[in-house]
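Appendix C reproduces, verbatim, an entry submitted by the partner laboratory led by Prof. M.T., so that reviewers can inspect both the input and the predicted structure.
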Amino acid sequence: MSEPDRRVTLNRRDVLLLTGAALGASALTDPAAATGANRTSGATGGTAVRGAGWAALDAECAGFMAGKFSPGLSICVMRNGRPLYSKGFGSADLQSRAPMTADSVLRIGSITKQFTAAAILLLQQDGRLSIDDRLSRFLPLFPHSGDFTLRQMLTHTSGLGNYTDTSTPEVFLQQARIDYPDPQLIAAMAATSPLMKSTPGTAWSYSNTAYVLLGIVVEIAAQEAYGAYYQRRLFGPAGMHATAVDDAAEVVPDRAAGYTPDAKSASGFANASFISMTYPGGAGSIRSTPQDLCRWHGALLGGRILQAASLMDMTTAVHLQDGSLPRDPDMARVLGEDKPIEYGFGVMMGAFEGQRYVEHGGGINGFLSELRSFPERGVSVSLIMNCDSMGKPEAIKHLYQVRDVAARAALAQA
């Protein structure tokens, strides 16, 4: 595949519905505490309980790998803090032939957004901002910053455009290769075209621009780098020992390489285009593991991160000024589903086979991710693959199939 074909998304376009992330899990605790007389070893080391549902999940994962949608796949299923299934399949690095494992570290793209949203809510709890502040309180020189609130930015109803939607893929790929100190990053966000897509509050339009700016608001209000703040207030309290705001310069044990489809390559994949993690910022810069993401939902939804009122704000679906739930035209294009969406602060809510969930997913150069939890049943499912699958949207549907088989297996035992 030629370089211009390697389109990146931070969760828009083909990856939108890998989005939703949030309310749903129950009080999940550290999986290390789980015991298990009924475990079988995973594909490359891991955990799984026995049963027909889990055999079906093994088969579904094997089928996913046979379809060559990604060099590797890492998956974790937890119920009430206990790992029911945690395995890696395929390869974490095609060059070194390192296998994908349950401990492999991968970039999560737009699942990052719920961490940014939680940080904003923590700062509100601490009296350092209000989600009803206008952006102009923190970035007074940013164009139109007095026209919309942080709450509208969190719910994608600010009217802001999306800086990842460039005129050609080459433009984004070139812009994403360099590091951006905050002043240059703010200038890059101001160059979003169009900067304003709609009147604030009147429409829902997914905006990476909004979440990059929210990451900068975190730094201004907290008076520290957002990565340090997330570590201190989010990752650490949640027991997420393999999670951090990523930096390509860091040597990270168990780091998985990211790929993109390439029909001309003998392996079927090529190295994903480089991206400086300063560019996605608060919209998509975190690295993690499926196990850590399940731990995160346990802490967040179990009330160990936010106060109850803040969590309610985060997981309440936004309504437009006319009182309606928003619709997203890209959902109809990607998945053939034209229906109202329930979107909170960096998370999406819905129902699967009668069970309410909260979720979010992500896509960034080299990776696709998904995190879905069922709060009333105490079940969380997280998957990350090390291929962005640009140009192969069928990979997303197959990843959803793996997710759904995993959810059914866990819900059958919950």
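Confidence is low (pLDDT under 50) at residues 1-42. Additional entries are available on request from the coordinating office.
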